[in-house]
Amino acid sequence: MGRHALASPRRRKLPAVAAGLIAPAAVFFAVGGDFHPYPAEETAKPAAEPPAEQGPPCCMEIVAAPGGGSTAAIQTVGLSAAQAQPSTASRWRVINIPQLLPVGDAPERGLQVKTILAARAVSAAFPEIQDIGGVRPDALRWHPDGLAIDVMIPNASSSGGIALGNRIVAYALKNAERFALQDAIWRGTYYTPDGGAKSGSYGHYDHVHLTTKGGGYPTGGELYLR
Fold it and tell me: Which residue range or ranges hold the ARB-07466-like C-terminal domain (predicted)?
């Protein structure tokens, strides 16, 4: 048969076996790039930087009414380095809005504005007080003109009553400028805002008498603030 003799059965069998082994392997490697027994973990991406928070400002302005008055004052309060963030230059304004004083124990008809303010403030500061006299006939002009009030003291002769009257006098003198206070009278002593105190036959053992400089009669648009 020469050079064109047919291959022996044994020689044909070896390539067939090799082909049977190579084919599954080829399939395995071809598919292996997409096949995983467990889901592949995604490559971690750096988290986006969150926008800078607007932290506490460098300082705060507190707007308040000193001494309960209606005139506003601004106080700047500095913050520590831990509290303040240099990335912000904003300022916070914390506003303390003064509260309105409710009508107190005094009948306000005929009283002038500073006298009304004093009466309402005393009523709010001393809830023990239940009776305050205002306008009434008198030989002196203070009560008839709405310039004075009488703060009646419960159990005025007791140690508790005397202490309460003393506190009311001290409160009125402390707020003398706010009330436009002219004087206070209590247990025979006449007090003035400049620190004067004269003892004598001034009476007023059952109430504290407060005289203001008035400020004019109300027009209806007044705000009485704590």
Answer: 109-196
Q: What is the CA radius of gyration of the chain?
A: 46
pLDDT tens sequence across 56-84: 444 443 333 334 444 443 333 344 445 54
8 A C-beta contact, residue 112 and residue 82: no
Report which of 94, 105, 197 is spatially closest to residue 149, judged by C-alpha positions: 105
**Residue 181: half-sphere exposure toward Cβ, Cα within 13 Å:** 28
Contact 122, 104 (CB under 8 A): yes
Give yes or no for a contact between 147 and 214, defined as CB atoms under 8 angstroms apart: yes
26 within domain boundaries: no
CA distance readout (Å), 204 to 53, 103, 110, 153, 185: 63, 25, 22, 10, 7
Q: How far is CA 217 from the centre of its chain?
A: 34
Q: Specify if 43 maps to a domain.
A: no
Write the pLDDT tens digit of every residue in 153-197.
999 999 999 999 999 999 999 999 999 999 999 999 999 999 999
Find out whether 83 and 57 touch, Cβ atoms under 8 Å. Answer: no
Q: How far apart are the first and last CA of the chain?
A: 130
Mean pLDDT value across the chain: 75
**Any idea what DSSP says for residue 67?**
G
